[in-house]
Design a protein that fits this description.
By secondary structure, the chain is of the alpha/beta class. About 35% of the residues lie in helices and about 15% in strands. It has a single domain, classed as Alanine racemase (TIM Barrel). It has a 3-stranded parallel sheet with strand order 3-4-5. Strands 1-2 form a two-stranded antiparallel sheet. GO terms for molecular function: alanine racemase activity.
Length: about 110
């Protein structure tokens, strides 16, 4: 499944970025196969490195990923509606004292 993740109108860049979500999912599945029974997470900080976390994360969830890492709490808050409630979102740059209920029950610092 290939999907263009931004407005394809020319903006003087002269290029069009096409993201192949099935290739991203295949890469995750290949990593998961290598780790055996261990958890295999997806690091989708910085808006999935500019690819669009709210598009990438649900595709990875569909591939079986249930653990997601972001850099900042604001990224986790933006991502939460895009994933089912059983997906765990971990925040890399956050102390547990910074997270108050009800947010504390949705994200792991």
């Amino acid at each position: 499944m290939k999907e263009v993740l931004f407005n394809p109108k020319p903006i003087n860049a002269g290029a069009l970025l096409t993201i192949d979500l099935s290739a991203i999912c295949a890469n995750w599945r290949a990593l998961k196969a290598r780790v055996g029974s261990a958890e295999c997470a997806a690091v989708i900080k910085a808006d999935a490195y500019g690819l669009g976390a709210v598009k990438i994360a649900p595709a990875l969830y569909g591939a079986g990923c249930r653990q997601f890492f972001v850099a900042h709490l604001t990224e986790a808050i933006d991502l939460r509606p895009a994933l089912p409630s059983d997906a765990a979102i971990y925040v890399l740059h956050c102390q547990s004292t910074q997270v108050k209920p009800p947010i504390k029950t949705q994200f792991s610092p």
